[in-house]
Amino acid sequence: MTPVDDAVVVVDFGAQYSRLIARRVREAHVFSEIVPSTISASELAAKRPKGIILSGGPKSVYETPAPTLDPAVYDLGIPILGICYGAQLVALQLGGRVERTGRGEYGRTELALVSSSPLFADWPTTAPVWMSHGDAMTEVPPGFDLLAKSEGSPVAAFGDAQRRIYGVQFHPEVVHTTRGSELIAKFAHEVCGVPASWTHVSIIEAGVDAVRAQVGSDRVLCALSGGVDSAVAAALVHKAIGGQLTCVFVDTGLMRAGEAEQVEETFRRQFHIDLVHVKAADRFFEALAGILDPEEKRKRIGELFIRIFEEVAVELAAGAAGPRFLVQGTLYPDVIESGTGDAASIKSHHNVGGLPADLKFELVEPLRLLFRDEVRAIGEELGLPAEIVWRHPFPGPGLAVRITGEVTRERVGIVRAADTIVVDEVRKAGLYGELWQAFAVLPATRTVGVMGDGRTYAYPIVIRAVTSDDAMTADWARLPYDLVERMASRIIGEVEGVNRVALDVTSKPPGTIEWE
């Protein structure tokens, strides 16, 4: 999938909520893309956006250094909405005043409207909003109108209707601002003039067209992992090119229980897609022997995956031209976390940063611009079964990144058995749909225990369960204690080699969802 027309670009100034702003724009059925604050006016113009949103950020506009915006952006004639830091930057760069008043505002704040604006149409004269700022705007730029104020913000919102440039001190993207999503939608639809055309059907249609344009009449391989991302990517590409697609499921020995059977059932028997099942567990365990570093694990797994696909391509060629395209279920958060552009690299995703430099395939990534909730929605639209569409995300490197230290057959067997129990108990408790992920982790340590009349020295298992909207941020799930007790009792009683169970209560940030 390629960037679409009628986009609203979010310029990221390091805000924790930049991804949330982009999601709110998409919820208004308008495509959004996140770009770094270092982008030039010419680079921004080349994207031909219909609107620009400047995010908040952790810095003060008076800090040195502090992120700034190419001043030529204001002369592009593209509507702009600044949020928090972004609003202060607009005010400062266009001649307004930002001061350190000594009175910051944090949390729920009462906003008082001063004059009318398309952004605040149908708002009451006062409304609760969410603030988080130390500096305050005290004077609007020349030619701008004061739109709203609060107790600690003499200028809480301002705008120039003729230039279509606005700024708000509060955060409309968070749920605590009760009409914030409505404000973002009004900016996109009424100020920018973008229609609500980014729908599940339009995403599929655009994806189909993009795949056909990229691959033409060539044959294509698709890497299936059993997870929702690769499944939806396969279904979308199959809709586009039909029999030109061959799916490859590489059984690495690092999959969840029942993974291979479910893939066979869905894609071979239900969708009638050509499926090659490669049993390669021995090769993966050999490649991972003695490897302790998590990044090295990911890269070895990624490289071996590609080598196997190359072998399959040669076999399929049978003397003719083999497939030269490879489909992967890369998502937008994968791209961001892998450090593309100016984003800091958190970890190399198996299908972004873990690929070999001498890749012989041209990648087809039809989901590259999508968040997972969008992927699930189009998966349903494409007719994938609910048990795949709503299955918890599973990392490309499989159980290898849920084992710290060396990956062996024994340790994979332990974590797989424990993981099966965790998921089973979560389903029985009726909580599976409420959680983003729930799984077991096997640390690289052993602990002393007492079982029966004897001393044990065995592995602990850590239960990891989180809630999230898009995996960019996550909170640890407050599981009922009786559920945790059932999990722990079953794991210790049923999984050989385990004598202790712990619960991970770390959010993201500071931790990542997966342990490696």
Describe this structure in words.
It is a single chain. The protein is globular. It has 516 residues and is α/β, with parallel strands linked by helices. It contains 14 helices and 21 strands. It is 32% helix and 22% strand. Helix 1 crosses helix 4 (180-191) and helix 13 (409-428) packs antiparallel against helix 14 (481-494). Strands 2-1-3-4-11-10-9-6-7 form a 9-stranded mixed β-sheet, with helices on both faces. It has a 5-stranded parallel β-sheet with strand order 14-13-12-15-16, sandwiched between helices. Strands 17, 18, 19, 20 and 21 form a 5-stranded mixed β-sheet that branches.
How many helices does DSSP assign?
Answer: 14
Shape: globular
Total beta strand runs = 21
Mean pLDDT: 89
Helix content class: 25-40%
Alpha carbon gyration radius: 25 Å
Poorly predicted residue ranges: 339-353
Strand order of the largest sheet: 2-1-3-4-11-10-9-6-7
Q: In what range is the share of β-strand residues?
A: 15-25%
User: Biggest sheet: strands, sense, closure?
Assistant: 9 strands, mixed
User: Structural class given helices, strands, pairing?
Assistant: alpha/beta
- Give the CA-CA distance, first to last residue: 29 Å
Annotation keywords:
516 residues; alpha/beta; five-stranded parallel β-sheet; 14 helices; 32% helix; 22% strand
Chain-wise SSE layout:
Layout: E1 7-12, H1 18-27, E2 31-36, H2 41-46, E3 51-54, E4 80-83, H3 85-93, E5 97-99, E6 105-113, E7 126-133, E8 136-139, E9 145-149, E10 157-160, E11 165-168, H4 180-191, H5 200-215, E12 220-224, H6 228-241, E13 245-251, H7 259-270, E14 274-279, H8 281-288, H9 294-317, E15 325-327, H10 332-337, E16 362-364, H11 372-381, H12 386-389, H13 409-428, E17 437-441, E18 447-451, E19 454-467, E20 475-476, H14 481-494, E21 498-503
Parallel strand pairs: 1-2, 1-3, 3-4, 4-11, 12-13, 12-15, 13-14, 15-16, 19-21
Antiparallel strand pairs: 5-8, 6-7, 6-9, 9-10, 10-11, 17-19, 18-19, 19-20
Helix pairs in contact: 1-4, 5-6, 5-11, 6-11, 8-9, 13-14
